Amino acid sequence: MSTVAEKKSRLVTRVPVEVRNTIKAAADLQGSALNQFIVQAAYRQAKEIIEHETIIRLNREQTKRVFELIDKPPKPNAALVATKATHRKIVRA
Q: Tens of pLDDT along 41-68?
């Protein structure tokens, strides 16, 4: 048991009765309280979304290509050189 009090906050939402009944049935099947079930399900989904949106997964060939580009980056093309020059003018202005 933790000796430090855990901060908690309230989350209130209104849902159609049919949605509540479905969620309650699922919670009952798992032997969970409705609030506990909702929090756990929402937390799991939130973690999945955050992972999906923030972690880049590469296959072997893609990983190899990334390391090749890090070791030997391509020379800047004309558009990049022009953009860099424009940026320098704006930043120094």
A: 999 999 999 999 999 999 999 999 999 9
One-letter-per-residue 3-state SS of the chain = CCCCCCCCCCCCCCCCHHHHHHHHHHHHHHCCCHHHHHHHHHHHHHHHHHHHHHCCCCCHHHHHHHHHHHHCCCCCCHHHHHHHHHHHHHHHC
Whether 64 and 53 have beta carbons less than 8 Å apart is answered as: no
pTM of the model as a whole = 0.60
Q: Residue 36 CA to chain centroid, in angstroms?
A: 22
Domain boundaries, the chain: 17-92
| Angstrom distance (rounded) from CA 36 to CA 31 | 10
Neighbours of 23 (CB within 10 A): 15
5/54 Cα distance (integer angstroms): 31
